[in-house]
Design brief:
It is built from nine helices and five strands; from the N terminus they run ααβαβαβαβαβααα. With 191 residues, it is α/β, with parallel strands linked by helices. Bound molecules: 5-O-phosphono-beta-D-ribofuranose.
Length: 191
């Protein structure tokens, strides 16, 4: 089985959803990115998408990243989410080593608040695309949703997951549709 062929990667995984073969790989440049990227993992978990999580850096562990990205397709991954901060080349380098869709999540950085991460992730020269999401937590959540939508073009069950997610989201908004929790403020604004 393909999965056993590259067992090493699975052994190092921070989290694997259920017993099912991972379809999405979340990679991030540093442990410090996990606080943000846990939102991607949680969203995938909520959507029932099997995934794996690894810390891999384009500059600190380039050979391991090359091996991970170069074997991702054979190992059954269908989408990769790559998060990095600063001069963020993780998503671009990953995309260069695989034909799988790569979604980049720019991390908020201390010095430039993630503008550096955003530009270095999004500004890929033509030929090697990275689908770049927003900086930080919203980007992490949306990367998971986008990855699920990509999977949904092939696996119908994930389209249903997204439909349910959106319905629940809309329900939550409607259940709290009065600002500050009162009908009073709504009446005021209607005047
Ligand atoms: C990048 O550098 C990582 O993705 C992280 O966002 C940033 C800072 O890394 P640490 O110094 O916290 O390990 O490679």
């Amino acid at each position: 089985m393909v999965r056993n062929k590259h067992k090493g990667f699975h052994r190092g995984n921070k989290q694997v959803s259920g017993n099912t073969h991972p379809l999405v790989g979340i990679i991030m440049g540093s442990n410090s990115d996990w606080e943000t990227m846990q939102h991607a993992a949680r969203t995938l978990k909520d959507l029932g998408v099997p995934h794996e999580v690894r810390i891999l850096s384009a500059h600190r562990t380039p050979d391991h990243l090359f091996e991970y990205a170069g074997t991702a397709e054979d190992r059954g991954l269908e989408v990769i989410i790559a998060a990095a901060g600063g001069a963020a080349h993780l998503a671009g380098v990953t995309a260069a080593k695989t034909i799988l869709p790569v979604l980049g999540v720019p991390m908020e950085s201390a010095s430039l608040k993630g503008l550096d991460s955003l530009l270095s992730t999004v500004q890929m020269p033509g030929g090697i695309p990275v689908g770049t999401l927003a900086i930080g937590k919203p980007g992490a959540i949306n990367a998971a949703l986008f990855a699920t939508a990509i999977l949904g073009t092939k696996h119908a069950e994930f389209r249903e997951s997204i439909r349910k997610y959106r319905a629940a989201q809309a329900e939550q908004v409607l259940a709290n549709s009065h600002p500050h929790g009162g009908a009073k403020s709504l009446k005021k604004s209607a005047r």
